[in-house]
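Dear Dr. V.,

Thank you for agreeing to look over these. As mentioned in my earlier message, I'm a first-year student in the group and I'm still getting used to reading structure tokens, so any feedback on how I've presented them would be very welcome. I ran two proteins. I've put each sequence directly above its structure. The first is here:
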Amino acid sequence: MARSTSWYARDAAPGIILLGATALSFLLNNSFAGDAFRALLDADISIPLGDFTANTTLAKFIKNALMAVFFLYVGLELKRECIEGPFRNPREAALPAMGALGGMAAPALIYLAIAAFLHPAGGPEYARGWAIPTATDIAFAIGVLSLLGSRVPSGLRLFLLALAIADDLGAILVIAVFYSASVSLAASIAAASIFIALMAMNRLGVTRLWPYVAGGVALWVAMAGSGVSPTLAGVLTALAVPMRRPDGGSPLIDAEHALKGPVQLGVMPVFALAVAGVAVEGPGLAAALAHPVSLGVAFGLLVGKPLGIVAFTWAGAMVLKQKPPCAWPHLVGVALIAGVGFTMSLFVGALAFPDHPDLAAPVRFGVIGGSFLSAAVGLLLLNVVLPRGRAPDPRTSLSADEDLAESRGVLQDND
């Protein structure tokens, strides 16, 4: 059956909607409705969970609950890629994984050099944001690359997809290790017990999805009280969802496909609407743009990402004796586009400085500015170096590339 060609099914749609949500967030924050909009985000809400009621604000609900759904989707994608996708073959996974490692290390070092070491007054407070420029927004980055259409070789698109997936795995580990509060032993034991029960269901052959959904909600509640970011409950739940049923069907892929639209067209834009905008006024705008945190994040994304990805990919190709996934100018261009951090970077920024609302504006300007410049420079470079007049490639969508990645691997099509 032919794939949908509706506008919202195209690769660029999530990025366009995210841009619209970001613009709307800035508009609301800086209009006559700004106070009402911020009051809405700070409004108290109660969520009944059986005999337990969770009291929170709308903004925290979006950050902790809706983003848990986002991480569930990311976790499902990661598991699929590791079992039946390109990461099932360690040799195929090594090169994009090396690139992702460099794409995390170099931005972190550049951020620290600008935001902390070259601005001693910030000290350890600014240093907590080192992971903000290390993330790549998969949907946004692929959407940007899709603007070049059939001129993009499928091998290059697949390399960016694999790189971003490995990057997401790194971001999940960073959040778990470095951005957890003081841990409650009792709640952690409860969370561990629920996760073990979910994995036991998998081993016992439970393939219906609703028990995993129920267990995931319980795991989220336990982790919310443990001090670990409850969004990681989504990833842990995804790890327990079975890949295959006895009839050959896939509960995991069913769940991933069911979540793709709501996450990319709903959860991510709502998150951007809630956290991307900030109220700015004359001198305050200039101070936010020139803030060490803003500059560290922006230069980490714009300079650190491509520098680290290209350097580590080159080193990996030399050590592993593999040919690069594409021509080097093409790799530089796609490495620049990997500097589109956006959703993941904004999320890490919210975790890094929860007690410093004065740093919200620098973080957001750094993420948005660095992501925009990375996308623009990457597109400009690729527009120059990619050959024109390529025959239309049937694998021009992210969904098609995911199917190809499952069957062939990311480095076997370097046209």
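The second protein is here, in the same arrangement:
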Amino acid sequence: MRPYITSVPRFYSRLFPPTQPPLDQQVMEELGKRMQANSGTFTPAHTVQMLPAGYTYFGQFVDHDITRDDTLLENAGKKSPEETPNLTGPWLDLSQLYGDGPESDKSGKLYAADGVSFRLGEREPPGEQFDVPLDCETNEPLLADDRDNENVIIRQLHALFLKLHNAAVREIGVGPPSERFERARQRVQWQYQWLIRKDYLREICDEEAYTAVIDKSERLIDWGNKFSIPIEFSQAAFRFGHSMVRERYRLNDTSPNVPLSRLFAETQQTRNLPAELAIDWANFIDTGPTSETAMAIDTTLVPPLFCLPVKHFHHFISDIPPDQPPQLPVRTLRRGAATGLPTGEEVSCALGATQLRAEGREFSTTTDPWILLDELGLRGRTPLWYYILVEAEQLKNGRRLGYVGSRIIAEVIEASLWADPDSYLNHEGAGWTPPSWCDLSGKTIAVVRLSDVPKVVGLYNSPR
């Protein structure tokens, strides 16, 4: 199949025809408001081990790399996708880290005096540098993309990859600064791309969809020579991670119960993050009996995502005027309706997937989503984002996405990598494996899981 509307890379596309008639905005608002979870619950029940909490924010990190649409909600749908700029994408090139490079007037302050390495946040000894740098004059956090300062977790994930770049520089050794920088950047970009394909997608996607798209290259969507991020991905499928957000997080042994409000507020301070908020990556991004896990992928979101003040709401989405609804799911559903996203049933049919059925399934969430859809007159016309969440809960116990959500995400990310002339797929092929790294002690480490990155840079067991 070919996309319904294609465009050049710096704009958006549309995979499927818009649904007709459009979904009602007031109904979308009511559905969104009724997606609030009971405070303190974990749904569904612990029938399976949920994903590590770090994968929630790695998904946000990837999203920031390939999509940015600053269209106000009130203007959503007034321009077609191919007329809507994608201000960052669509390549998985870590643009939020590198900006325009060390020679740029705009990005130069991100880099150390050697013109090769990144600056890092200073921290009093003992302890590792785990934060982004600060502006020397204003003490404001310095990032090429301020969205990576939306909360304490993604800010530290950003710093983690800054340190990985510096590790690559250290291994390269001597040489002209510009050459060393480009070699280090390529190594980190390719490692990051490989982790997305071989670890992140494998963890979040339905096994059948992952095998077909990534392992067997059996893609359903033929982009031709015009790839861009589709709105079905940016406005629906890749927003599944909102349901994975916890109300509170155990960052480390001394900070076991940090609320979302502090995760947001701390990043607005003109200082480096305090040591008490340093993430213990061993328990945050790895699996194990004591690991901090994400919430299940389902149709409920934690209460703080329904009542964020305007100044905090910007940490999830940057387009909220004071008179607009503060509930994150309301905004997601209303935007999708305004842009004419196809329904879940329409996408499922187009992808050849088995239609979801309400019969024979018990839900452990507060409200059975099928009953809610019936009450709102949406049975058979389920908003795409909501359908993907129902699918994950009903078919995968909330541990991973179902077939429709997985197929959209895997197809788009794989197409992005093949369309990027600088990706490892186009230089080395799908069978390439990243070379091993050396940690600070000289030990060799093969980075095959996201949890291996903090091992390379010396943050896996921090704070001590």
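From my reading of the second output: The chain has a mean pLDDT of 91. The first strand starts at residue 248 and ends at 249. Does that match how you would interpret it?

Kind regards,
E.
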